[in-house]
């Protein structure tokens, strides 16, 4: 039972003060070592303090006591060294306070304490380790590599060789562990990074393989074999990548020079594996062709034949870390030179990315559920998450970038960050977390030199406390360090998993993997031919754009070099690859200083795919994108892009603009927000994510919000400049497509303004004030701009262009009751309050109901008048040269045909069928069916034609970047319109025309029957 310090008599310090749990035993052991007296540590306090810093002070002191007994004759020298040599103190206590196995080793081989004395603080080289292990078996002969004809041959074999090698190997590991742990015990000692330790451990493993091979050669020769086979040992896995653990299998592949060598080479390989397994570690050859079922040794041609014909994706992934380490060096280099091209073209294999991802999932699924949270290596957020993500990125992008072809996970990760394939912060975070997890893994394995990757149970406070101290986490309380370690472990595991999923499941990988390897590194002439084959009409022009985007050595150019092969393929699938690439260049140059732009394209593959589709289809999108780049971020979020409530967007715009008092700034802000919304809607529309009616409604809503904002700031500004209170209420009445909430991208806003004096104000003053406000609104919104126009059209007001800009409600009613014509009643059918004083607007609409829905309907004369007007519009307003069959507005079966047909029904029957009283064309047609005024089939024909004409009109605006009512005749434009309408890639553009003509022809037949009654 451990004694507490409170149980001790007197005032002398207790060992408990220095972190020892078993106080009585600790004091006895300290006394025996000469480091404790009745008054405490005396002149040995530095030693006791160093012991207190050990991960497990009790284990360290107990192991020192055992060493004292085992090395009794040398104890005085050891004690003097510990007192005088900080390096020895840090290394010896660091090892003994961490590892029971190394304590056992030092007790069995006490002379090895000398390995830990200060001297050369640089770890040994591969040659140093090889020489030491070969000396252990008295290897003699030649200057060649072990396992070659002129290489060293061990003088001892069997159990004697195994015993000698095991002791020598443990001695070398002791030296490495001492350097690794010294900084924990003595802060003045240099800290050692886990990757440096892993690299040295890998060198020791290679030296061990060479020594085992020397013993195997001796055994083979003793069996009567005089001529050695040419055999090369290829390290794979962590040994191949210079990132081995303290305890791990060493993965290898064996290569023989010829078929004649196979038999003896197999015997030699088997002997080497047995010797290494008994002396150092298991040698695992399961990564060879056909795995454990395959031949242990194959010739180089045998390996290549298998890899070219039968190998699976994971086998190429394993070859990433292949390097020759023992045996015939020249044969090993030939092997490496032959298999490397296969590794760097494996990403072209069908379903390559999916195969790698599937392998990771299988590995993860093999982890027992109850251990998955603590599994450092294979679990979620573990080492394999980092390694799989890095290897997948290497194999996809390393085809064209040799800087990524490192077998080391951390070196490759840093290269991916430097090359722009991974965000610098993501790369740095993964490096940090990988180091932490590897350090914890090393410390866990040091305890008993056993292969383990399992983090201690979260309720095992003792194990957690020791492990926490071994990685440098300190605390005043015994449980606190362990809790801090658990928190740190979870933080790193969560970060690794998050970044793994971000990188490993990046859609960009699949897109880049589909680009042939040769296309990633083409000569100019070959690139020109490939671009032409992809469908670029001007390959030389495309090459100039590519050169402009990728020239130089900047990180931006590097990321562009990564993106462009994939983007070129994506753009090639669009109607206008050349225009799309030019637009991409313009956008990239405009956003060159936007730090997240290229990161977004690289990290969010769906953004790159969608952007290519947009740029290769539309001229409007890139124009808007340069001035509203923030919309790019929405391309990765379908819901934010296409499902935003129009009312919410309008409210947000009005709220943002209301903060401004200066009219120009307010309207500028409104324009900016409208630009953002139009671009968002256009992207959702072109990508097929929004229904047509949602597009029309969203465009109308944002237009109304701009009107509202301009009106509000103008009212405040005019009132401020006049120095008087606002004398009038003003309402904006939407007419035409704005009233029907059916605006397109290039539509004007047809409106009328109505006002009334506030209480106590003169009507004349109210009208003057409202007129000034309206003039300012029109001036502000009509100012030249690069955005789609903001034209406020008030020609539908009483008396047209000659009439007053603003009237009172009574004035409007007086005019309509006395002077209005049939067309004005027709125009009022789409009147809807859209901005300004809501109550006044609603009263206006109710007041004009008798005008637009006349009691008793229309008499025959007015019906004939409307039909005459329609016929005149058809004949006179169609632009010269326009094709009436494909003109969306005034052509046969187009918008005007459908709208006039409905409006005639509304004028004639709206007074008796309230459901007809809607400004919406589609809603009105459906209401006419319910009222029994229109056959359901006829309504469907009209709705289909009207919707198609609206969509074509919008598509033309998106494709050309300017309004147009005519279906294009030029093939590339027509193909782009087809893509904008959602036709599949490669469809014959003539099919679009045929579909339009068929739909509008059917609609025209309905119009002739219903509107003209012919």
UniProtKB/TrEMBL annotation:
<dbReference type="GO" id="GO:0008882">
    <property type="term" value="F:[glutamate-ammonia-ligase] adenylyltransferase activity"/>
</dbReference>
<feature type="domain" description="PII-uridylyltransferase/Glutamine-synthetase adenylyltransferase">
    <location>
        <begin position="885"/>
        <end position="1009"/>
    </location>
</feature>
<keyword id="KW-0547">Nucleotide-binding</keyword>
<dbReference type="InterPro" id="IPR043519">
    <property type="entry name" value="NT_sf"/>
</dbReference>
<dbReference type="InterPro" id="IPR013546">
    <property type="entry name" value="PII_UdlTrfase/GS_AdlTrfase"/>
</dbReference>
<dbReference type="Pfam" id="PF08335">
    <property type="entry name" value="GlnD_UR_UTase"/>
</dbReference>
<feature type="domain" description="Glutamate-ammonia ligase adenylyltransferase repeated">
    <location>
        <begin position="609"/>
        <end position="845"/>
    </location>
</feature>
<dbReference type="InterPro" id="IPR005190">
    <property type="entry name" value="GlnE_rpt_dom"/>
</dbReference>
<comment type="similarity">
    <text>Belongs to the GlnE family.</text>
</comment>
<dbReference type="GO" id="GO:0047388">
    <property type="term" value="F:[glutamine synthetase]-adenylyl-L-tyrosine phosphorylase activity"/>
</dbReference>
<protein>
    <recommendedName>
        <fullName>Bifunctional glutamine synthetase adenylyltransferase/adenylyl-removing enzyme</fullName>
        <ecNumber>2.7.7.89</ecNumber>
        <ecNumber>2.7.7.42</ecNumber>
    </recommendedName>
</protein>
<feature type="region of interest" description="Disordered">
    <location>
        <begin position="1"/>
        <end position="21"/>
    </location>
</feature>
<keyword id="KW-0511">Multifunctional enzyme</keyword>
<keyword id="KW-0460">Magnesium</keyword>
<keyword id="KW-0067">ATP-binding</keyword>
<feature type="region of interest" description="Adenylyl transferase">
    <location>
        <begin position="516"/>
        <end position="1014"/>
    </location>
</feature>
<keyword id="KW-0808">Transferase</keyword>
<comment type="function">
    <text>Involved in the regulation of glutamine synthetase GlnA, a key enzyme in the process to assimilate ammonia. When cellular nitrogen levels are high, the C-terminal adenylyl transferase (AT) inactivates GlnA by covalent transfer of an adenylyl group from ATP to specific tyrosine residue of GlnA, thus reducing its activity. Conversely, when nitrogen levels are low, the N-terminal adenylyl removase (AR) activates GlnA by removing the adenylyl group by phosphorolysis, increasing its activity.</text>
</comment>
<keyword id="KW-0548">Nucleotidyltransferase</keyword>
<feature type="compositionally biased region" description="Low complexity">
    <location>
        <begin position="1"/>
        <end position="17"/>
    </location>
</feature>
<feature type="domain" description="Glutamate-ammonia ligase adenylyltransferase repeated">
    <location>
        <begin position="92"/>
        <end position="336"/>
    </location>
</feature>
<feature type="domain" description="PII-uridylyltransferase/Glutamine-synthetase adenylyltransferase">
    <location>
        <begin position="360"/>
        <end position="504"/>
    </location>
</feature>
<feature type="region of interest" description="Adenylyl removase">
    <location>
        <begin position="1"/>
        <end position="508"/>
    </location>
</feature>
<dbReference type="Pfam" id="PF03710">
    <property type="entry name" value="GlnE"/>
</dbReference>
<dbReference type="InterPro" id="IPR023057">
    <property type="entry name" value="GlnE"/>
</dbReference>
């Amino acid at each position: 039972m451990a004694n507490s310090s409170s149980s001790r008599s007197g005032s002398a310090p207790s060992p408990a003060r220095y972190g020892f749990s078993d106080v009585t035993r600790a004091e006895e052991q300290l006394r025996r070592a000469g480091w404790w007296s009745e008054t405490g540590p005396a002149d040995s306090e530095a030693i006791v303090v160093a012991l207190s810093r050990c991960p497990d002070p009790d284990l360290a002191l107990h192991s020192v006591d055992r060493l004292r007994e085992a090395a009794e004759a040398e104890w005085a020298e050891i004690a003097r060294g510990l007192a005088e040599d900080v390096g020895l103190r840090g290394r010896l206590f660091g090892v003994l306070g961490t590892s029971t196995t190394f304590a056992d080793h030092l007790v069995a081989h006490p002379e090895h304490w000398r390995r830990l004395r200060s001297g050369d603080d640089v770890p040994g080289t591969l040659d140093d380790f090889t020489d030491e292990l070969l000396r252990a078996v008295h290897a003699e002969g030649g200057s060649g590599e072990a396992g070659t004809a002129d290489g060293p041959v061990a003088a001892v074999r069997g159990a004697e060789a195994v015993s000698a090698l095991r002791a020598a190997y443990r001695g070398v590991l002791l030296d490495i562990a001492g350097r690794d742990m010294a900084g924990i015990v003595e802060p003045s000692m240099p800290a050692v990074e886990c990757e440096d330790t892993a690299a040295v451990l890998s060198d020791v493993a290679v030296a061990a393989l060479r020594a085992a091979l020397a013993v195997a050669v001796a055994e083979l020769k003793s069996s009567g074999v005089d001529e050695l086979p040419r055999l090369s040992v290829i390290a794979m896995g962590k040994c191949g990548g210079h990132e081995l653990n303290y305890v791990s299998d060493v993965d290898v592949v064996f290569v023989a020079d010829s078929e004649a060598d196979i038999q003896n080479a197999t015997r030699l390989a088997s002997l080497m594996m047995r010797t290494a397994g008994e002396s150092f570690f298991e040698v695992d050859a399961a990564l060879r062709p056909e795995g454990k079922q395959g031949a242990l040794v194959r010739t180089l041609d045998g390996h290549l034949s298998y890899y070219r014909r039968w190998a699976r994706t994971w086998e190429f992934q394993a070859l990433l870390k292949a390097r020759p380490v023992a045996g015939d060096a020249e044969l090993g280099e030939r092997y490496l030179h032959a298999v490397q091209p296969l590794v760097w073209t494996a990403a072209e294999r069908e379903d390559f990315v999916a195969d790698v991802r599937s392998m990771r999932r299988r590995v993860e699924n093999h982890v027992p559920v109850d251990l998955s949270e603590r599994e450092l290596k294979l679990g979620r957020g573990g080492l394999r998450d980092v390694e799989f993500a890095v290897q997948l990125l290497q194999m996809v992008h390393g085809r064209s970038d040799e800087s990524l072809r490192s077998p080391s996970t951390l070196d490759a990760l840093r290269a991916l960050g430097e090359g722009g394939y991974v965000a610098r912060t993501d790369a740095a975070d993964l490096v940090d977390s990988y180091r932490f997890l590897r350090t914890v893994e090393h410390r866990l394995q040091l305890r008993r030199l056993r292969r383990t990757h399992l983090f201690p149970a979260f309720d095992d406070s003792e194990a957690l406390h020791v492990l926490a101290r071994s990685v440098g986490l300190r605390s005043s309380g015994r449980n606190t360090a362990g809790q801090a370690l658990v928190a740190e472990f979870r933080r790193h595991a969560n970060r690794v998993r998050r970044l793994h999923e971000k990188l490993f499941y990046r859609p960009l990988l699949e897109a880049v993997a589909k680009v042939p390897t040769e296309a990633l590194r083409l000569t100019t002439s070959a690139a020109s031919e490939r671009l032409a084959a992809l469908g670029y009409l001007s390959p030389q022009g495309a090459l100039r754009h590519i050169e402009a985007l990728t020239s130089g050595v900047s990180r931006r150019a590097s990321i562009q070099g990564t993106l462009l092969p994939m983007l070129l393929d994506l753009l090639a699938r669009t109607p206008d690859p050349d225009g799309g690439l030019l637009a991409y260049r313009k956008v990239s140059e405009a956003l060159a200083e936007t730090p997240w732009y290229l990161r977004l394209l690289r990290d969010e593959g769906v953004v790159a795919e969608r952007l290519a589709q947009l740029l290769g289809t539309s001229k409007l999108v890139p124009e808007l994108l340069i001035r509203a780049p923030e919309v790019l971020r929405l391309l990765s979020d379908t819901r934010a892009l296409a499902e935003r409530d129009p009312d919410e967007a309008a409210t947000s715009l009005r709220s943002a603009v209301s903060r401004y008092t200066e009219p120009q700034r307010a309207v500028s802000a409104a324009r900016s927000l409208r630009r953002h919304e139009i671009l968002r809607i256009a992207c959702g529309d072109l990508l097929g994510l929004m229904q047509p009616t949602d597009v029309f409604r969203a465009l109308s809503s944002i237009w109304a919000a701009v009107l509202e904002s301009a009106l509000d700031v103008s009212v405040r500004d005019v009132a401020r400049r006049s120095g008087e209170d606002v004398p009038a209420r003003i309402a904006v009445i939407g007419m035409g497509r704005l009233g029907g909430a059916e605006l397109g991208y290039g539509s004007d806003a047809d409106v009328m303004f109505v006002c009334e004096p506030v209480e106590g104000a003169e009507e004349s003053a109210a009208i003057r004030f409202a007129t000034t406000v309206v003039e300012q609104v029109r001036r502000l919104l009509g100012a030249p701009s690069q955005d789609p126009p903001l034209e406020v059209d008030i020609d539908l007001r009483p008396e047209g262009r000659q009439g007053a800009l603003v009237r009172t409600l009574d004035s409007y009613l007086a005019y309509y009751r006395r002077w209005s014509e049939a067309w004005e009643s027709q125009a009022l059918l789409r009147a809807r309050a859209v901005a300004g004083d809501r109550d006044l607007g609603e009263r206006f609409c109710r007041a004009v109901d008798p005008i637009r829905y006349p009691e008793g309907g229309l008499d025959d004369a007015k019906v004939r008048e409307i039909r005459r007007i329609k016929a005149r519009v058809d004949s006179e307003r169609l632009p010269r040269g326009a094709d009436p069959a494909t003109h969306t507005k005034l052509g046969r079966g187009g918008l005007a045909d459908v709208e006039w047909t409905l409006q005639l029904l509304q004028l004639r029957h709206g007074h008796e069928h309230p459901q007809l009283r809607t400004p919406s064309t589609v809603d009105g047609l459906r209401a006419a069916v319910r009222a029994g005024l229109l056959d359901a089939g006829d309504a469907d024909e009209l709705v289909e034609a009207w919707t198609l004409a609206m969509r074509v009109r919008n598509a033309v605006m998106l494709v050309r970047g300017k309004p147009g009512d005519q279906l294009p005749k030029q093939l590339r434009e027509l193909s782009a319109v087809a893509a904008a309408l959602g036709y599949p890639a490669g469809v014959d553009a003539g099919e679009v025309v045929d579909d339009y003509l068929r739909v509008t022809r059917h609609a025209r037949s309905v119009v002739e029957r219903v509107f003209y009654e012919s």
